[in-house]
Specification:
By secondary structure, this protein is mainly beta. Helices cover about 10% and strands about 50% of the residues.
Length: about 140
Amino acid sequence: MSSSSDDPAVSVCFTVDVDGTEIGTFNSCEGLGVEIVMEQREEGGNNTMVWQLPSRMKFTNVKLSRPVGPNSRKLTEWLSKALEHLEPTTAGISARSADGQIIAAWSLQGVLPVRWTGPSLNVDTAKVATETLEIAHHGILPGPK
């Protein structure tokens, strides 16, 4: 029988930090992934197969969304600094359970902001005001335990 620490958990939020500074908690994280681009090579005299050779890795952009709140200021401050000096940095994403325990963590290398979308403000609709941050990166490493 496995212990409860070995059981898969359902994450309910994602905390994000950039260079060790937390920019808040997000309720949606999409795009953590990598694709290995394969090149096909045909070998003369070999008619039964085509070689598939790995050539490079492509990392997908990560989109983080959340309701607008007090931490929105931290995100805006980081964006302002990043846009003044577009230099790749590191970021950490931690998936957390309802009781705040870290389920899994990732470290992103070479992070740059790609897009920030603020809330649509309209008094005629009763929607939660949300913001979305999209970041590009060039590497995923395991985060701290």
